[in-house]
Amino acid sequence: MTDDKREGDGASPRGFHRIAGLLYRADRVVRPAPWAQAIGPGDLWSDDGRDPEYNHAVRAPHGFGHERLHRADRLYDIVLLTDWNWPDAVPGRGSAIFLHRWRKPRHPTEGCIAFRPDHLLRVAARLHPGALIEIR
Q1: Active site annotation includes 62
Q2: Does the keyword Coiled coil apply (predicted)?
Q3: What's the CATH code of the domain at 25?
Q4: Fewer CB within 10 Å, N or C, the chain?
Q5: In a domain, 4, yes or no
């Protein structure tokens, strides 16, 4: 946890954040809520501070640094997007702060908040766009 989030520091930004979106892999899980949007093979998230679309969803091919949302593992089968440094992103202040599935208990993320799969599904089904969460 940090009060001074920076890109690549591996820390989660402490504070209150709003839920800005809900993504899911339609080929792997049932739509968790009516407002959820399916993740496609070309869906990416920009994590490059030089990119005008930094900390926003982008599509492949993309000439700046990014991470794939359509992953081979199950981490992003359900993803709740937060409003950390979004929509008016400050380069280098941190990107892709999501709520997503954990790798395993007590395994760190790169700044996100990770849940057991059944808990994440329960959270995703109950939250709504604009819901306020606290990271502490």
Answers
A1: no
A2: no
A3: 2.40.440
A4: C
A5: no
